[in-house]
Amino acid sequence: MSVPDTPAGQPKKAATAAWIGSALEYYDFFIYGSAAALIFPEVFFDESDPATATLLSLATFGVAYAARPVGALFLGHFGDRLGRKKIMVFTLILMGVSTFLIGCLPTRDQVGTLAPVLLVLCRVLQGISAAGEQASANSMTLEHAPPHRRGFFTSFTLSGTQGGQLLATLVFIPIAALPEEQLLSWGWRVPFWMSIAVAVVGYVIRRKLQETPAFEQQAATEGVPKMPLAVLMREHWADVLRVIAGALVASVSTIFTVWALSYATSDSVGMSKSSMLWVGALANLVALAAIPLWATLSDRIGRRPVYLIGAAGSAVMMFLYLWSISTGSYPLTLLLGIVTFGVVYSAANGVWPSFYGEMFSTRVRLSGMAIGTQIGFAVAGFAVTFAAQIAGPNGDDWSAVALFTAALCVPPVVAAVSARETARIPTEQLGERTARESAQPETVTA
After folding, report:
1. Which tens digits make up the pLDDT trace of 216-237?
2. E-assigned strands of 202-317?
3. Are residues 251 and 284 in the same domain?
4. Is 290:350 a contact under the CB 8 Å cutoff?
5. 258 and 191 co-located in one domain
6. Do 48 and 132 share a structural domain?
7. Which run of H or E residues covers position 300?
8. Any transmembrane segments, and where (predicted)?
9. Nearest Cα to 244, choosing from 30, 69, 436, 36?
10. Could you say which of 184, 211, 238 is where a domain stops?
11. DSSP letter, residue 427
């Protein structure tokens, strides 16, 4: 099956829509991480036991990751049945609404234990939204991209994610600098209220984007699967396992973004909230430039070597970064934070959208990416909670957390080494290594 030519300009439009949409989506997702580390322990949990309050707050951050595999099952199914565009619009609206509602929640002092319950419910909705966002945006950009530049164009989804994280951090810097009373009463709500713009902007950006030629050709000729999950598990189960293992590399991001922030601003280290937020901001700024550069390199030398640099390098660099925090030296922390997250981790982060997506055929690509990544991301999300426990009663055993993070980088390395190189394979032939013949009753024509 040959894929019809992509209309002129459509790859750039798809990449732009993916970048802006992901930035807006993950702005919402990451402001929660900053709030979970800095604000929520005092607003939604028992202040009389700060250590437990922090642990429970970080656990709510992980709740969204637990919801993501469930969301991936549904959104992956409909994305491979109905198309990439519909899912991209739906996920942005859901994220915008759920995040806005977090900003409207009553506190523990106002409604007691109902407050954290409502918080968890909104966080679950965020997780369901995030489950479909990256997979649909990645599929859209990959299937629109020229075959020899799939790595570059698909990396815009992750550049957008980093852009959203940068925006979330920059918004929280002045918020964290507010007087304590104002911060805990109304200040923390402002970044969440701003997310209502996500629903409006996301709809305007994505509603005019064309469906991908690969999906339309699949639907018009062979038809779309009635049960994409069944086809996925029969024909691509090994690649799903590889993606699950590879997605564990996201633990580097969650430990860096949430646990390290909590540790650095704790009494045992004593760095200011604003200064540590600047570490994340500058690291994300560097990542915005590094991600497309790593992705372009993968178009030339292959996905696997670039991905391995990011996964293995991150395991080493997290030791150095967390050690730098323990020294209390802010210049050293800033430098190693930028190198760890902005440069080294970006190698894996910039390549996985194309690397994972190229493992699957068009008929199950969105399902394969969504389910595989979200199961791995679920573990990565709760890595923050495990790290808080591993760090001991005082929360300062950084070496144990660094070793834990490095251990989570081993499965991604194994997954990359065992995967086939896909950078040179034509788009219409991706996923053909596995059996693609299906029984007639399992497909329907669009």
Report:
1. 777 777 677 778 888 888 888 9
2. 224-225
3. yes
4. yes
5. no
6. yes
7. helix 273-301
8. 55-75, 87-108, 152-176, 188-205, 243-264, 276-294, 306-324, 330-348, 369-392, 398-419
9. 69
10. 211
11. G
What's the alpha-carbon Rg for the chain, to the nearest Å? 21
For residues 336 and 77, which has the higher predicted lDDT (pLDDT)? Answer: 336
Distance CA 298, CA 312 (A): 16
Residue 88, pLDDT above cutoff 90: no
Q: What is the reported pLDDT for 172?
A: 80
| H-type alpha helices, 255-272 | 260-264
Tokens representing 412 are: 């991604």
Domain that holds residue 101: 11-211
Range ranked top by mean pLDDT from 76-80, 159-163, 367-371: 367-371
Cα separation, 356 vs 392, whole angstroms = 36
pLDDT of residue 398 exceeding 70? yes
The two structure tokens encoding residue 278: 């600047």
Q: What is the pTM of this model?
A: 0.80
- Classify 16 in phi/psi space as left (phi over 0), alpha (psi -120 to 50) or beta: alpha
Q: What distance separates the 2 farthest-apart alpha carbons in the chain?
A: 65
- How crowded is residue 194: how many other Cβ atoms within 10 Å of its Cβ? 18
Tens-place pLDDT, residues 278-311:
998 899 899 999 999 999 999 999 999 999 999 9
Name residue 396's amino acid: D
Specify if 445 maps to a domain.
Answer: no
pLDDT value at position 380?
85
Q: Give me the number of domains the chain comprises.
A: 2
Residue found under tokens 């690291």:
283
pLDDT score for 95:
84
Last-in-domain residue among 162, 181, 211: 211
